[in-house]
Design brief:
- This protein has helices spanning about 5-25, 90-105, 125-130, 170-175, 195-200, 230-250, 335-345; strands at about 35, 70-75, 115-120, 145-150, 155-160, 210-215, 220, 260-265, 285-290, 305-310, 325-330, 350, 355-360, 365.
- By secondary structure, it is of the alpha/beta class.
- The strands form three sheets. A seven-stranded mixed beta sheet has the order 8-9-7-10-11-13-14, covered by helices on one side. It has a five-stranded mixed beta sheet with strand order 3-2-4-5-6, with helices on one face. A two-stranded parallel sheet has the order 1-12.
- Helix 2 links the parallel strand 2 (about 70-75) and strand 3 (about 115-120).
- InterPro entries: Aim32/Apd1-like (IPR009737), Thioredoxin-like_sf (IPR036249).
């Protein structure tokens, strides 16, 4: 067989890559997909004019891969640009700074192949609710404990202590944020057993932590205005629209399926607001709707993440195609809220026009 000249070899390599990309593009998506978001059937808010939103770049693949998403309850919808700057004024700021220090370069649990995404949320800390309904003044630490969510593990942690002597933070990271045995990066396969063990999760440590399984869908919207004004404008607008639509859809004869109830205060991990009730009027499915800090991609605001629990069922009934997954959307406007709730949340269909990426409960990254 004659050898190819360098110029011909280069053309062959380019052709091969193009063929590979074409082959990949013809593969069926690993989940149901619809190309665009259906038009709303009811009036909804409009977005302010003049927002500099990137509407040209393809969204699919724009989500940075991660292994776990840690979300800390703060009761606020905006934060300083760097959350760590609040370490001396808020207990959740201290908690976040300590987590990032432990996972970051030079930290005890540093692993460049275990990317843990850390966000603040508008969900009200339980400690604040226990203060007779009074929220402490800004800059005053109500307690030395925080509440946190971890996805796609779908765990709700309550009263995580930050005092060094409690060792709670270390137990939390070691038991919930490190890779499970067998999922540690292959680069460590030749390391000593002790080194591998140091980078691997120890689930037994979680028995001393107060946590529960999250049964309810969770919708998160970036509202980090001090990081970028686009998210600061669209985040609260989308939060209000999701809450309004979810709470009013049951009164419409244009939609089918279960009644939903949006929870925007303290996070509620229960799937039903009245699990012991026999009345259909009291058996609305709970949907937690919250605002979160920076997740990347301001230019594609509004940015929305939907975490669908493994036990959630699809309409009309049966297994949900996206159960246990997190789906990331960009360029979301109020007019897309109905379509996201009806098509993605309730029917398990990914909207291609807005899809940035996703993650499964096992940590696999979803792409189109």
């Amino acid at each position: 067989m004659p050898l190819l000249k360098p110029s011909h070899l280069r053309l062959a390599q380019i052709s091969s890559r193009r063929s590979a990309r074409a082959a990949l593009s013809t593969h069926a998506a690993p989940f149901p997909v619809i190309p665009t978001c259906p038009d709303p059937t009811c009036p909804c808010s409009s977005i302010p004019a003049g927002l500099d939103i990137d509407r040209k770049q393809q969204l699919s693949g724009s989500m940075s891969p991660y292994t776990q998403h840690l979300i800390v309850s703060t009761g606020r919808s905006d934060w300083t640009s760097r959350i760590e700057d609040e370490k001396d004024t808020a207990v959740w700021g201290r908690f976040t700074a300590d987590v990032k220090a432990s996972l970051g370069r030079g930290g005890e649990f540093h692993d460049p192949y275990n990317n843990v995404l850390v966000s603040m949320s508008s969900f009200t800390p339980l400690a604040d609710l226990q203060r007779n309904g009074e929220t402490p003044p800004a800059g005053v630490q109500a307690s030395k404990i925080v509440d946190a969510l971890v996805f796609p593990a779908f765990r709700h942690f309550k009263e995580l202590g930050i005092e060094p002597q409690s060792n709670t933070l270390r137990k939390f990271i070691k038991s919930s944020l490190l890779p499970e045995e067998g999922k540690i990066h292959p680069i460590y396969k030749d390391r000593s057993e002790s080194e591998r063990k140091a980078k691997t999760r120890d689930s037994s440590l979680a028995t001393s932590l107060d946590s529960s399984f999250i049964e309810t869908p969770t919708i998160l919207i970036c509202s980090h205005g001090q990081r970028d004004s686009r998210c600061g404008i669209l985040g609260p607008l989308l939060h209000a629209e999701f809450t309004r639509y979810i709470n009013h859809r049951k009164t419409s004869d244009r939609v089918s399926g279960p009644m939903l109830k949006a929870t925007a205060g303290a996070f509620d991990p229960r799937s039903s607001l009245s699990p012991d009730s026999t009345s259909s009027a009291d058996s609305s499915i709970n949907v937690n709707v919250g605002m979160i800090s920076h997740v990347g991609g301001h230019k594609w605001a509004g940015n929305v993440i939907i975490y669908i629990p493994p036990t959630f069922e699809c309409l009309p009934s049966g297994p949900h195609p996206l159960a246990g997954s997190g789906i990331w959307y960009g360029r979301v406007e109020p007019r897309h809220v109905e379509g996201i709730v009806e098509q993605t949340l309730l029917r398990g269909k990914v909207i291609q026009d807005h899809f940035r990426g996703g993650i499964t409960k096992g940590g696999d990254i979803l792409r189109l």
